[in-house]
Amino acid sequence: MSGLNFVPEPLAQLPWKIILLVMAIGVFGLLVMYSAAGGSLRPWALVQGIRFFVFLAGAVVLSRVRESTWSMIALPAYGALIVMLVLVELIGAVRGGGQRWLDLGIIRLQPSELMKVFIVLAVARFYDALPPNETRRFGAIWPAAVLILIPAALVMKQPDLGTALMIVFGGITVMFLAGVPLRLFIGGALAVGAAVPLAVNFVLHGYQRNRILVFLNPESDPLGIGYHISQSKIAIGSGGILGKGFLNGTQSHLDYLPEGHTDFALATMMEEWGLVGGILLILAFFVIIQWGVSVALRAQTRFGRLTAAGLATTIFFYVSINMAMVMGLAPVVGVPLPLISFGGSSQMTVLLCIGILMSIDRQNRQTVRW
Question: pTM of the entire structure?
């Protein structure tokens, strides 16, 4: 027991400010889903709410897992997810034009979402096993690159450009934090820039190529492939400073805004809650990401530091890519806004990140106390 002598120790150790903030974002997301359905709990808000509280409870349970356990299972879990990604290619369920799910009967699992988390753990585990003075050698770089590129290539086959980019960003972030020389990242960025025209013409699917072309020239096809982003900008702009008010959005309620409950949930929200609502949401996510970085700074092990920083960065990429996409600052790549957009996969991934961060945070505080 601790605190006021009636709070059990496991509960007292939890970062309640972060848990309550996550809960506030999740509940706000339910309001957005309720409004997107025209003031109804079905078909999105009720299902989203049940999944949110189940996954949040799961995150609290995961906070009790020891950091050493995450280190031990990182590579085996990575290997299992690679097998699942291969199975998706062979027998995966097709939905929305993409083959991305394994239908397990009671649940439809998207292994690529879990890979966003475990690529961070796997690369962190690899560098944790290396002596720090070996990090700058070529033998410490190519294995990590292979760890990243294999799942990214499998996910690109589904096809899912947004998730593949998230996997690459998460893994590269851990490599950078582990001490891989900066010149390699600069050289890699230049190589990628030179290869972009080839990728656009020979690697990307037709709809992905069109999304990039529309991003470069948004007005080229406002009623076709550019319709999503055009309507998203109209919705955000019409919200103004304070918004039109809860349940008063017109773009989503009149079905002008496609995918207003998934990828473009931010536009649905900002039409009703305005710039103020958008800024408050950004600040809430900033606090969570800043907490994740602080967990990394306090970590007592190299694995803990790399994992916590990588997971905090994963949440950052989720938020920043979706917001840039919805506002027309990046191509539409299908990355949802965590805890707001409808969908169990992204919800599960972000709360898994938070659960592991709470686990490392608990280990930090126990070590300091000892």
Answer: 0.90
